[in-house]
Amino acid sequence: DIKGFVFDLDGVIADTSVYHSKAWHQLADELGVAWSDDLAENLKGVGRMDSLNLILKTGGKENAYTEEEKEKYAAKKNTNYLSLLKNMNASAILPGISDFLKTLEENDYRLSLASASKNSPLVLEQLGLAKYFEKRVDPTTLKHGKPDPEIFARGAEVLGYKPEQCIGIEDAKVGVESINAAGETSVGIGDPKILHEADINFTDTTQLTLANIKAAMKVGEH
Ligand code: BG6
Ligand code: MG
């Protein structure tokens, strides 16, 4: 039986993946690396330094900077990101998410957060959603980023549940891979062509309801 839900944050709970994208786009321009939709997609779910490395690699500049310079660029991106967050409020919560979280609470499911973002506590507070998440995986304590199963495996563990008792929810391809590798049921939010490995796919958060998940899991049993 499903007892827990392990959530990604950016692009699932809130519209913040757009802010991350904007901030990286700005930095890519500064570094002279061409921005593209593919690059934006590949950056979803990827941690801060890994994201910068991916941008540099895309531009053939992987050896152009010292570690110290890279730290400065990563910090600069975060400053940009934080300034975009300043005016963010509950209106950035994606459609249907508040109701979904309430329903999960009413039905005694327990929730943890498996976001790669170091800013996730701040974002949840600012959105007024921190109360729903009993536990959070601290990404600074992880050895590997998504698609490695570590973060989603930990998301179940912190709740005291086995992976098979948990559903993981993600908008990034690497995130769905992480959920699957951890042995949880994966719900992908977004383009089914990109998220084709998800056990259950919804094109957007308005379809993310407990009833829809239950219906999809029943179909999967046969
Ligand atoms: C993920 C986002 O949740 O967190 C990525 O999808 C982001 O876009 C990553 O790069 C790391 O976030 P932060 O806030 O620690 O730089
Ligand atoms: Mg995400």
Features:
binds 6-O-phosphono-beta-D-glucopyranose; isomerase; 6 strands; 222 residues; Beta-phosphoglucomutase; binds magnesium ion; six-stranded parallel sheet; EC 5.4.2.6; alpha/beta
Descriptive overview:
There is one protein chain. The chain has 222 residues and is of the alpha/beta class. The protein contains 9 helices and 6 strands. The protein has helices at 16-31, 37-43, 48-58, 67-85, 97-106, 120-127, 150-157, 173-182, 210-221; strands spanning 4-7, 110-113, 135-136, 166-170, 185-189, 200-202. β4, α8 and β5 (185-189) form a beta-alpha-beta unit. The model has no long low-confidence stretch (mean pLDDT 97). The structure holds 6-O-phosphono-beta-D-glucopyranose and magnesium ion. Residues 9-10, 17, 20, 43-48, 51, 78, 115-119 line the site of 6-O-phosphono-beta-D-glucopyranose. It is an enzyme of class 5 (isomerase). InterPro entries: B-phosphoglucomutase_hydrolase, Beta-PGM, HAD-like_sf, HAD-like_SPP, HAD-SF_hydro_IA, HAD_sf, PGP-like_dom2. Pfam families: Hydrolase (PF00702). It comes from Companilactobacillus mishanensis.
Small-molecule binders here are: 6-O-phosphono-beta-D-glucopyranose, magnesium ion
Number of continuous helical runs: 9
**End-to-end C-alpha gap:** 16 Å
Work out the helicity level: 40-55%
| Low-pLDDT residue spans | none
Q: Calculate the mean pLDDT score and round it.
A: 97
Strand order across the biggest sheet?
3-2-1-4-5-6
User: How many strands, which pairing sense, and closed or not: the largest β-sheet?
Assistant: 6 strands, parallel
Order of helices and strands: EHHHHHEHEHEHEEH
Number of strands: 6
Tell me the overall shape.
globular
Whole-angstrom Rg: 17 Å
Beta-strand level of the residues, as a percent range? 5-15%
Assign the structural class, choosing from mainly alpha, mainly beta, alpha/beta, alpha+beta, or little secondary structure: alpha/beta
